[in-house]
Specification:
578 residues, alpha+beta, seven-stranded antiparallel sheet, five-stranded antiparallel sheet, 16 helices, 20 strands, 21% strand, disordered N terminus, disordered C terminus
């Protein structure tokens, strides 16, 4: 029931409430705001103790500010109560609007939960509305908006008049909690903005430092680097190159900006470049220098953006690997070539021969006079064409200009124009020109095939035994030179081991192969001078033919057997070595 002085009490309380609310907006930080909220309850709403519990990011509530008792402040400030315990408290007792009052008759069950709390001593209440030391009054603070997100809870204790707050006191506390929620939200917003500004400034400083570091790393990198357009009409055009790349290619930066890597790459490596992805792509290829030579490089790509939403560019790291490639080629050559003579070794010979054979018999689809496709000859050139003129030898070499070459030992360099490209649907071997052999007998039927000449030296063992391995090695080197000189550039001369050699010569008929064997034998017979001494060896040749449907071993064994047949047929011929 209101007394005669109640209007004056309301007016004084309203003035105090106005002052403490005004103080909320003067705090500079979130911590200051929370402490001002607690002190405003004590100073403006006439409670002896006040505590502000703030919701943390994990949902639990921490005691963030306390006012009215230094001892209690030291006891519970910073302690945490679980969200479940607080939800339980805010659902108990009596609801005074948004406030929650838990009388001592119900609050005893909360003595053992994990919410930080303090207890005041005092006599038992004598009147019904007198405040009990274990009464609890909470003022939840909700964020503005329809969601009513809980920001925290104000806990109050011991009203100065010793009684439960009346309707006006409850309204004042609820209004103060609402204004406190707004002040806390604003303080958080200001704190977030300040942190964002500080973070932005730091990021800008870091960005400037990063840009300077990138510029220095780009310009002064010991290996080449380039930035190119990514996408659009100018895709791949070089925008910026460092000094190392300009020195590597012998071109100034102003000239480099006219090119893309596609303009500089070796024609044989353009496919490798186009298959290299922009992000994380790697490739090894050759780039052209200003003097017309090419250098082996390793490219590594990455995509960079000018800004978060700005245009993207291609950053390419270019490393000179010329020396490594040279070593790799040397190692590959050593693995595939004989150390003494420099000729392809047995493994390389088998690899080259295997590349010409398939499991399908050559008679099914023959690359012969009736086929019209070149078997490693010039494009569209038929070996039975009158202009071929039988592929005859002149001065120890064939006069066939369209004869293709075998490639290096590492790649088994067969040229792609030795393959035909019929429309699909004809079976797994339609892209392979089948190797066939001429018919047996002394009659040359005009078929051109891959001749395999197996050569075994006669009298070599006696030279080795009589004059030593040094002389024997010199003889093998000279025989290898004479065999290589006596064949075409596209033919293969290989050393199987010991004193055995094999010659692969493509596009020959039976008569051509026999003529080649005679010429090579005659080239070997002349004396060989070693350390002022003339020694002489002979040679037996067996001619075999490679044909699809045969294995490599079958081809070599066939030529080997024919060589022994010839050696036996000439056993009565007097041979002399030394």
């Amino acid at each position: 029931m209101e007394t005669e002085s109640e209007p004056y009490v309301r007016l004084a309380t309203l003035r105090q409430l106005h002052q403490v609310v005004a103080d909320l907006n003067t705090a500079r930080s979130l911590a200051d705001t929370l402490q001002t909220v607690a002190e405003g309850v004590v100073r403006g709403l006439n409670y002896e103790l006040a505590c502000v519990n703030l919701v943390r990011a994990d949902g639990d509530l921490v005691v963030a500010a306390f006012a009215g008792s230094p001892a209690a402040e030291a006891l519970i400030t910073g302690r945490v109560g679980s969200r479940a315990s607080w939800d339980r408290r805010l659902s108990m007792g009596e609801a005074w609007g948004d406030l929650r009052f838990i009388p001592h008759t119900e609050g005893w069950v909360l003595m053992e939960d994990d919410v930080p709390q303090w207890h005041t001593d005092g006599p038992a209440p004598r009147f019904e509305d007198e405040w009990h030391p274990q009464d609890r009054l909470y003022a939840p603070m909700y964020a503005s908006g329809s969601g009513r997100e809980l920001l925290g809870v104000i806990s109050v204790d011991r009203p100065r008049n010793g009684r439960h707050p009346g309707p006006w006191g409850r309204e004042a506390l609820q209004m103060y909690a609402s204004q406190s929620a707004i002040a806390i939200s604003n303080a958080r917003l200001r704190a977030n903005m300040q942190r964002a500004l500080v973070r932005l400034e730091r990021e800008q400083q870091a960005l400037r430092a990063s840009e300077e570091s990138f510029r220095q790393a780009f310009e002064y990198a010991p290996s080449g680097m380039a930035i190119a357009e990514l996408g659009g009409d100018q895709h791949g055009r070089l925008l910026r190159t460092n000094d190392a790349l300009c020195r590597l290619l012998g071109r100034p930066a102003s000239v480099m900006r006219r090119y893309s890597f596609a303009d500089l790459v070796h024609p044989e490596d353009i496919g490798t470049l186009l298959r290299t992805s922009a992000e994380g792509g790697r490739a090894e290829l050759r780039l052209g220098r200003r003097d017309g030579t090419y250098v082996w490089v390793s490219l590594r790509n990455s995509v960079v953006a000018d800004t978060a939403d700005g245009p993207r560019f291609l950053l390419t790291h270019v490393e000179d690997i010329e020396e490594r490639k040279r070593h790799e080629l040397q190692l590959a050559h050593r693995a595939s070539h004989d150390a003494l003579t420099g000729l392809p070794n047995s493994a390389e010979l088998r690899a080259r021969l295997s590349a010409r054979l398939c499991e399908r018999p050559g008679g099914v689809r023959a690359a012969s006079a009736s086929d019209g496709r070149p078997a490693y000859g010039g494009p569209g050139r038929r070996h039975d064409d009158p202009s071929y003129e039988g592929g005859s030898y002149e001065n120890g070499s064939y006069d066939e200009p369209g004869f293709d070459t075998y490639g290096s030992g590492a790649e088994h360099g067969f040229r792609s124009d030795g393959f035909d490209f019929d429309p699909p649907g004809g079976g797994p071997y339609d892209h392979h020109v089948h190797t066939v052999a001429p018919a047996g007998g002394d009659v040359d039927d005009g078929t051109k095939g891959l001749a395999v000449l197996f050569c075994d030296l006669d009298g070599f063992k006696s030279i080795n035994d009589r004059f030593g391995h040094h002389t024997g090695d010199a003889v093998l080197i000279e025989v290898a030179r004479r065999l290589t000189t006596g064949v075409r550039d596209g033919d293969t001369v290989a050393r199987l081991g010991g004193d055995e050699f094999v010659v692969l010569a493509d596009g020959l008929g039976a008569a051509d192969a026999a003529d080649l064997a005679v010429r090579l034998r005659n080239a070997i017979i002349p004396p060989i001078r070693v350390d002022g001494r003339a020694v002489r060896v002979g040679a037996s040749f067996g001619i075999g033919w490679a044909e699809c449907g045969m294995t490599v071993e079958e081809v070599l064994n066939s030529a080997d057997q024919r060589m022994y047949i010839e050696k036996r047929s000439r056993a009565k011929v007097q041979r002399r070595a030394g």
